[in-house]
Design brief:
The complex is a heterodimer of chains A (170) and B (384). Chain A has three helices and eight strands; from the N terminus they run ααββββββββα. Chain A has 170 residues and is of the alpha+beta class. Chain B has a domain of 131 residues: Peroxisomal Thiolase, Chain A, domain 1 (3-Layer(aba) Sandwich), CATH 3.40.47.10. The two termini of chain B are 13 Å apart. Classes of the chains: A alpha+beta (170), B alpha/beta (384). The structure holds zinc ion.
């Protein structure tokens, strides 16, 4: 039997916490499948716009500027340049990386658009714009068609890139 | 020929970390009733309602405008919902203005809100996507690298961000609706606050707020209310993709195009000289100098110099965010509308202690998403 008097004693309910979840199937399409299959082989694959010649990685299948399909597959280097970055020092629900960590925009050699990457194997106060980095992949047996195949980026040991070489990608 | 349109009523809630005394419906109704009272109208005088808020995933209520219809007096009336991420409050006001300017309706109620205490925006903005590493830590993690790029590009010294953080919080003391009232803030307390997203510190970031904003927009033959109308002199929206090769993430083209359009409509060729006040979406301190340049208040690379010289201070030649801005109150969906609403309050002479003397022409600006949505209006005391 419920004890009504006890419930009344706690006053009215004003807030309910209701955890929610959302599961979905994702269909990547042709262009993104090229990228994902590349990751499963330990390679960064992008696509070139036939009109402006810019290389997108990952490609969404068309050039946002020209509105034409990108059909030429391009394999990119395993190294790139940190164009800009921040050091994340704030915890949030679902966070999977220990703070503080470096979240950087990495411009792979041969690409015309940077993407966000985790930088490790360097103290957070030594990261800088223009730093050259290389991808560190999981063991070959663990490669999957997912960005989980890239563990992180780390300094490649090359001299920093000149600001002029990447300033148009900021 | 478009009809003239004016703001004839404004209303907002007291923005707080947690409004646990009201539901979302109660909160939006509070702002709407205040706007109706300001316009000296009742629910039955309203022809249509336009609602905006940030993504539904924040509070987890899908299409909340449907359940809000009774609370907003919209049963049996046309109702529209607007979605443009953080800029949505501005875009929502512009959609309402279009309904009047096109001659479809005489009086439109427009409302925007967020109840961040019912939601987890950090989580909603950081959900792992199939093609991105799970790195993003909320909006700050997205914008901090672009702020660093601005600092590198312009050569701005570190203290500029702290100056904006202090200026906007001291302005907020004179706004009774502002969430944060920090009378003791100074450069040192900002510098000593926790580094969240290096180079952004805690006090250089906006708070999480519950709050709502509402306005009544009317056609020229349907004016009412005790304060003079704020006439819309220009209104524009622009957007651009978040990712394309050659995109300028510090100074987005969509923002430049949007301001060029709104200035052309309002006959503005020199915004710093011709505008009397601006309410601009600055959720992180460094976005003041960045938007000063994007909005054409100065030459490229000089935004930080205006901030440093005090030009944007309350007693400067072009006050920015006399209300305290987004840095002092951030009910996300409402934050853009608050910029538009505060601009209207200034030219109506109803801003109280944060009134800029003799403000005749004001800019309201909002941006959202990954700096890809822009909404702006210019309102004036004189009929256009
Ligand atoms: Zn192209």
């Amino acid at each position: 039997m419920a004890d009504d008097s006890t419930i009344e004693g706690r006053g009215p309910v004003t807030t309910l916490a209701t955890p929610i979840r959302l599961d979905f199937d994702f269909t990547p399409g042709i262009a993104q499948s090229v990228f994902l299959r590349g990751l499963a082989r330990g390679r960064f694959m992008g696509q070139r716009c036939p009109k402006c010649g810019k290389v997108y990685v990952p490609s969404r299948g068309s050039c946002p500027t020209d509105g034409v399909p990108t059909t030429e597959d391009v394999e990119l280097a395993n190294v790139g340049t940190v164009t800009t970055y921040c050091v994340v020092n704030v915890p949030f629900a679902g966070q999977s990386i220990e703070i503080p960590y470096i979240c950087a925009q990495v411009l792979l050699d041969g690409a015309n658009l940077s993407f966000m990457g985790l930088i490790q194997e360097i103290p957070t106060d030594e990261i800088r714009m223009g730093m050259r980095v290389e991808a560190v992949w999981v063991d070959e047996a663990d490669l999957t068609p997912s960005l989980a195949s890239v563990k992180y980026f780390r300094p490649s040991g090359e001299p920093d890139a000149d600001y002029e070489s990447y300033k148009e990608y900021l | 020929m478009a009809e003239r349109c004016a703001v004839i009523g404004v209303g907002q809630t007291h923005h707080k970390a947690k409004r646990d005394d009201v539901s979302i419906a109660g909160m939006v109704r509070e702002a709407a009733k205040a706007a109706l009272a300001d316009a000296e109208l009742t629910w039955s005088d309203i022809d249509a309602v336009v609602v905006g808020k940030a993504p539904d995933m924040f509070e987890g209520n899908m299409m909340p405008e449907l359940y809000l219809a009774p609370a907003l007096g919209a049963v049996g009336k046309p109702m529209l919902r607007v979605h443009t991420a953080g800029s949505v409050g501005g875009s929502t006001a512009l959609v309402a203005a279009h309904l009047v300017k096109s001659g479809i309706h005489k009086r439109v109620l427009t409302v925007a809100y967020e109840k961040q205490s019912d939601s987890d925006a950090m989580w909603a903005l950081s959900v792992p996507q199939p093609f991105a590493a799970p790195l993003l830590a909320g909006a700050g993690g997205y914008f901090a690298p672009h702020i660093r790029a601005y600092m590198r590009r312009s050569g701005a010294p570190d203290h500029i961000g702290r100056m904006v953080a202090v200026k906007d919080r001291l302005n907020a003391i004179h706004n009774p609706y502002a969430h944060l009232h920090l009378p003791d803030i100074d450069m040192k307390t900002v510098e000593e606050s926790m580094m969240l997203w290096d180079p952004l510190r805690y006090l250089e970031a906006c708070p999480s707020s519950d709050g709502a904003a509402a306005m009544v927009l009317a056609a020229e033959d349907s004016l009412s209310g005790g304060y003079p109308p704020a006439w819309i002199h220009g209104a524009a929206m622009r957007s651009e993709p978040t990712m394309f090769a050659g995109r300028d993430q510090v100074n987005p083209q969509a923002g430049r195009d949007c301001s060029a359009d709104v200035y052309a409509q309002a006959g503005i060729t020199d915004p710093r000289a011709q505008l009397d006040v601006a309410e601009v979406y600055v959720p992180f301190s460094w976005y003041e100098p960045m938007w000063l340049e994007n909005l054409g208040f100065c030459d490229l690379g000089d935004g930080w110099k205006l901030t440093e010289a005090g030009a944007t201070a309350f007693d400067g030649d072009i006050p920015w965010n006399p209300s305290g801005g987004v840095l002092s109150s951030n009910p996300i969906g409402a934050s853009g509308m608050l910029r538009f609403l505060e601009a209207a309050m200034q030219v109506r002479g109803q801003a109280g202690e944060h009134q800029v003397d003799g403000a005749g022409l004001a800019l309201g600006q909002a941006y959202g998403g990954g700096s890809q949505f822009f909404a702006m209006w210019v309102v004036g005391a004189d009929k256009p």
